[in-house]
Amino acid sequence: MRRKYIVGNWKMNGHITSLHEAQAIEKAAHAHPGVDVALCPPFTLVMAMAKLCPQLGVGGQDCHTLDKGAFTGSVSADMLVDCGAKLAIVGHSERREYSHESNEMVRNKASAALGAGLDVIICVGEPLSVREAGDAETYVLGQVAQSLPMALLHAPKRVAIAYEPIWAIGTGLTASTDEIAAMHGAIRGALGSAANDVRILYGGSVTPDNAAEILATSDVDGALVGGASLSAAKFVPIIAAGEGASNT
Ligand code: 13P
User: Fold this and answer.
1) Which of 126, 133, 147, 223 is disulfide-compatible with 106, CB 3.0–4.6 A?
2) What is the tens place of the pLDDT at every residue in 155-192?
Protein backbone atom coordinates (compact mmCIF):
# COMPACT_ATOMS: atom_id res chain seq x y z
CA MET A 1 0.00 0.00 0.00
CA ARG A 2 1.49 3.34 -1.06
CA ARG A 3 0.85 6.22 1.35
CA LYS A 4 -0.45 9.41 -0.22
CA TYR A 5 2.28 12.03 -0.57
CA ILE A 6 1.39 15.73 -0.59
CA VAL A 7 4.33 17.95 -1.49
CA GLY A 8 4.54 21.72 -1.77
CA ASN A 9 6.99 23.35 -4.15
CA TRP A 10 7.43 26.96 -3.15
CA LYS A 11 9.54 27.70 -6.26
CA MET A 12 11.22 31.16 -5.92
CA ASN A 13 8.82 32.34 -3.24
CA GLY A 14 9.12 32.82 0.50
CA HIS A 15 11.16 34.68 3.10
CA ILE A 16 11.90 34.14 6.77
CA THR A 17 8.56 35.78 7.45
CA SER A 18 6.83 32.95 5.53
CA LEU A 19 7.95 30.27 7.98
CA HIS A 20 4.79 30.63 10.05
CA GLU A 21 2.92 29.13 7.06
CA ALA A 22 5.21 26.10 7.24
CA GLN A 23 4.50 25.80 10.97
CA ALA A 24 0.75 25.83 10.33
CA ILE A 25 1.23 23.24 7.58
CA GLU A 26 3.28 21.07 9.94
CA LYS A 27 0.47 21.22 12.49
CA ALA A 28 -1.98 20.03 9.84
CA ALA A 29 0.38 17.26 8.79
CA HIS A 30 0.45 16.12 12.41
CA ALA A 31 -3.35 16.08 12.44
CA HIS A 32 -3.44 13.94 9.28
CA PRO A 33 -1.11 11.03 10.05
CA GLY A 34 -2.42 8.99 7.11
CA VAL A 35 -0.47 11.07 4.57
CA ASP A 36 3.16 12.04 4.09
CA VAL A 37 3.64 15.81 3.79
CA ALA A 38 6.70 17.65 2.51
CA LEU A 39 7.59 21.22 1.61
CA CYS A 40 10.35 22.33 -0.71
CA PRO A 41 11.15 26.00 -0.10
CA PRO A 42 13.97 27.93 -1.76
CA PHE A 43 17.45 26.84 -0.59
CA THR A 44 17.62 29.94 1.63
CA LEU A 45 14.85 28.57 3.85
CA VAL A 46 15.67 24.86 3.93
CA MET A 47 17.72 24.92 7.11
CA ALA A 48 15.42 27.21 9.07
CA MET A 49 12.31 25.29 7.99
CA ALA A 50 13.86 21.90 8.75
CA LYS A 51 14.77 23.11 12.26
CA LEU A 52 11.41 24.73 12.91
CA CYS A 53 9.27 21.93 11.43
CA PRO A 54 10.92 18.61 12.28
CA GLN A 55 7.80 16.61 11.42
CA LEU A 56 7.64 17.92 7.86
CA GLY A 57 9.78 16.46 5.14
CA VAL A 58 11.72 19.54 4.04
CA GLY A 59 13.48 19.38 0.71
CA GLY A 60 15.38 21.23 -1.98
CA GLN A 61 13.97 22.06 -5.41
CA ASP A 62 17.12 20.93 -7.21
CA CYS A 63 20.61 19.62 -6.48
CA HIS A 64 23.87 19.36 -8.39
CA THR A 65 25.09 16.07 -9.82
CA LEU A 66 28.36 16.30 -7.86
CA ASP A 67 29.19 16.61 -4.15
CA LYS A 68 31.34 19.75 -4.33
CA GLY A 69 33.49 21.82 -6.63
CA ALA A 70 33.78 24.96 -8.70
CA PHE A 71 30.10 25.34 -9.64
CA THR A 72 29.15 28.85 -8.61
CA GLY A 73 25.60 29.15 -7.38
CA SER A 74 24.95 25.41 -7.16
CA VAL A 75 24.04 23.31 -4.12
CA SER A 76 24.86 19.62 -3.75
CA ALA A 77 22.64 16.86 -2.38
CA ASP A 78 25.17 16.37 0.40
CA MET A 79 24.79 20.05 1.38
CA LEU A 80 21.01 19.65 1.47
CA VAL A 81 21.40 16.72 3.85
CA ASP A 82 23.80 18.83 5.91
CA CYS A 83 21.12 21.43 6.54
CA GLY A 84 18.35 18.99 7.40
CA ALA A 85 16.69 18.23 4.06
CA LYS A 86 15.07 14.84 3.57
CA LEU A 87 14.30 15.05 -0.14
CA ALA A 88 15.00 16.84 -3.40
CA ILE A 89 12.89 17.59 -6.44
CA VAL A 90 14.83 17.12 -9.68
CA GLY A 91 13.96 17.74 -13.31
CA HIS A 92 11.15 20.23 -12.77
CA SER A 93 9.98 21.51 -16.16
CA GLU A 94 11.01 25.05 -15.19
CA ARG A 95 14.60 23.82 -14.71
CA ARG A 96 14.44 21.69 -17.84
CA GLU A 97 13.36 24.80 -19.77
CA TYR A 98 15.20 27.74 -18.16
CA SER A 99 18.36 25.90 -17.10
CA HIS A 100 18.41 23.57 -20.12
CA GLU A 101 18.50 20.39 -18.06
CA SER A 102 18.55 17.22 -20.14
CA ASN A 103 17.13 13.85 -19.12
CA GLU A 104 20.70 12.69 -18.52
CA MET A 105 21.36 15.57 -16.12
CA VAL A 106 18.12 14.88 -14.32
CA ARG A 107 19.05 11.21 -14.00
CA ASN A 108 22.47 12.10 -12.59
CA LYS A 109 20.90 14.53 -10.14
CA ALA A 110 18.45 11.85 -9.00
CA SER A 111 21.37 9.43 -8.50
CA ALA A 112 23.26 12.06 -6.52
CA ALA A 113 20.24 12.73 -4.32
CA LEU A 114 19.64 9.04 -3.61
CA GLY A 115 23.35 8.50 -3.02
CA ALA A 116 23.39 11.29 -0.44
CA GLY A 117 20.46 9.72 1.40
CA LEU A 118 17.68 11.98 0.13
CA ASP A 119 14.34 10.83 -1.19
CA VAL A 120 13.80 12.13 -4.69
CA ILE A 121 10.90 13.42 -6.77
CA ILE A 122 11.64 13.22 -10.49
CA CYS A 123 9.43 15.47 -12.61
CA VAL A 124 8.18 14.75 -16.12
CA GLY A 125 5.49 16.29 -18.30
CA GLU A 126 4.70 17.32 -21.83
CA PRO A 127 4.25 20.78 -23.40
CA LEU A 128 0.88 21.70 -24.91
CA SER A 129 2.08 21.25 -28.50
CA VAL A 130 3.01 17.63 -27.77
CA ARG A 131 -0.35 16.92 -26.10
CA GLU A 132 -2.20 18.50 -29.04
CA ALA A 133 -0.22 16.37 -31.49
CA GLY A 134 -1.36 13.24 -29.62
CA ASP A 135 2.19 12.37 -28.56
CA ALA A 136 2.00 13.04 -24.81
CA GLU A 137 2.38 9.44 -23.69
CA THR A 138 5.36 8.70 -25.92
CA TYR A 139 7.02 11.93 -24.82
CA VAL A 140 6.49 11.35 -21.09
CA LEU A 141 7.47 7.68 -21.20
CA GLY A 142 10.65 8.75 -23.00
CA GLN A 143 11.41 11.17 -20.17
CA VAL A 144 10.69 8.45 -17.60
CA ALA A 145 12.96 5.95 -19.34
CA GLN A 146 15.82 8.43 -19.56
CA SER A 147 15.45 10.35 -16.29
CA LEU A 148 15.22 7.47 -13.82
CA PRO A 149 18.46 6.34 -12.21
CA MET A 150 19.47 2.68 -11.91
CA ALA A 151 19.70 3.19 -8.14
CA LEU A 152 15.92 3.40 -8.19
CA LEU A 153 15.80 -0.37 -8.38
CA HIS A 154 17.42 -0.62 -4.95
CA ALA A 155 15.31 2.09 -3.33
CA PRO A 156 11.95 2.37 -5.11
CA LYS A 157 10.18 3.53 -1.94
CA ARG A 158 12.43 6.61 -1.85
CA VAL A 159 11.48 7.63 -5.37
CA ALA A 160 8.43 9.49 -6.61
CA ILE A 161 7.65 10.55 -10.14
CA ALA A 162 5.67 13.78 -10.55
CA TYR A 163 3.63 13.98 -13.74
CA GLU A 164 3.20 17.69 -14.37
CA PRO A 165 1.81 18.59 -17.79
CA ILE A 166 3.54 21.88 -18.56
CA TRP A 167 0.35 23.45 -19.87
CA ALA A 168 -1.32 22.85 -16.50
CA ILE A 169 1.39 24.49 -14.35
CA GLY A 170 0.31 27.82 -12.92
CA THR A 171 -2.38 28.20 -15.58
CA GLY A 172 -5.50 27.14 -13.70
CA LEU A 173 -5.94 24.35 -16.28
CA THR A 174 -5.74 20.80 -15.01
CA ALA A 175 -5.57 17.60 -16.96
CA SER A 176 -8.88 15.74 -16.82
CA THR A 177 -9.05 12.79 -14.47
CA ASP A 178 -9.21 10.53 -17.55
CA GLU A 179 -6.00 12.08 -18.91
CA ILE A 180 -4.32 11.78 -15.50
CA ALA A 181 -5.39 8.15 -15.01
CA ALA A 182 -4.19 7.21 -18.51
CA MET A 183 -0.79 8.85 -18.08
CA HIS A 184 -0.22 7.59 -14.54
CA GLY A 185 -1.21 4.08 -15.63
CA ALA A 186 1.22 4.27 -18.54
CA ILE A 187 4.02 5.47 -16.24
CA ARG A 188 3.26 2.71 -13.73
CA GLY A 189 3.32 0.19 -16.55
CA ALA A 190 6.83 1.33 -17.49
CA LEU A 191 8.27 0.86 -14.00
CA GLY A 192 8.75 -2.92 -14.08
CA SER A 193 9.63 -4.42 -10.71
CA ALA A 194 9.51 -0.98 -9.03
CA ALA A 195 5.90 -0.37 -10.06
CA ASN A 196 4.35 -1.27 -6.70
CA ASP A 197 6.60 1.00 -4.67
CA VAL A 198 7.28 4.16 -6.68
CA ARG A 199 4.72 6.86 -5.95
CA ILE A 200 3.33 8.80 -8.89
CA LEU A 201 2.21 12.34 -8.06
CA TYR A 202 0.16 14.72 -10.18
CA GLY A 203 1.09 18.39 -10.42
CA GLY A 204 -0.42 21.33 -12.26
CA SER A 205 -2.95 23.77 -10.78
CA VAL A 206 -3.92 21.51 -7.89
CA THR A 207 -6.19 23.50 -5.56
CA PRO A 208 -8.43 22.84 -2.55
CA ASP A 209 -11.33 22.65 -5.04
CA ASN A 210 -9.98 19.92 -7.32
CA ALA A 211 -7.64 18.01 -4.97
CA ALA A 212 -10.14 15.41 -3.72
CA GLU A 213 -11.13 14.37 -7.24
CA ILE A 214 -7.55 14.25 -8.50
CA LEU A 215 -6.26 12.37 -5.46
CA ALA A 216 -9.01 9.76 -5.82
CA THR A 217 -8.00 9.07 -9.44
CA SER A 218 -6.48 5.67 -10.10
CA ASP A 219 -2.69 5.51 -9.91
CA VAL A 220 -2.46 8.96 -8.30
CA ASP A 221 -0.38 8.61 -5.12
CA GLY A 222 -0.22 12.28 -4.26
CA ALA A 223 0.21 15.81 -5.51
CA LEU A 224 3.05 18.22 -6.19
CA VAL A 225 1.56 21.62 -5.51
CA GLY A 226 2.96 25.02 -6.47
CA GLY A 227 0.90 28.14 -5.86
CA ALA A 228 -1.57 26.55 -3.45
CA SER A 229 1.26 25.35 -1.17
CA LEU A 230 2.37 28.87 -0.29
CA SER A 231 -0.32 29.36 2.33
CA ALA A 232 -1.60 26.97 4.96
CA ALA A 233 -5.13 28.16 4.18
CA LYS A 234 -4.91 26.58 0.71
CA PHE A 235 -2.48 23.72 1.36
CA VAL A 236 -4.09 22.25 4.47
CA PRO A 237 -7.35 21.31 2.66
CA ILE A 238 -5.22 19.52 0.05
CA ILE A 239 -3.51 17.55 2.83
CA ALA A 240 -6.95 16.69 4.23
CA ALA A 241 -8.08 15.60 0.76
CA GLY A 242 -5.04 13.32 0.62
CA GLU A 243 -6.07 11.66 3.84
CA GLY A 244 -9.67 11.42 2.63
CA ALA A 245 -8.53 9.72 -0.57
CA SER A 246 -6.37 7.30 1.43
CA ASN A 247 -9.36 6.17 3.41
CA THR A 248 -11.55 5.34 0.46
P1 13P B 1 1.03 25.07 -9.69
O2 13P B 1 0.40 24.22 -8.62
O3 13P B 1 1.25 26.49 -9.25
O4 13P B 1 0.34 24.94 -11.00
O5 13P B 1 2.52 24.49 -9.90
C6 13P B 1 2.68 23.14 -10.12
C7 13P B 1 4.14 22.84 -10.04
O8 13P B 1 4.90 23.18 -10.93
C9 13P B 1 4.62 22.14 -8.84
O10 13P B 1 5.93 21.70 -9.01
Assistant:
1) 147
2) 999 999 999 999 999 999 889 999 999 999 999 999 99
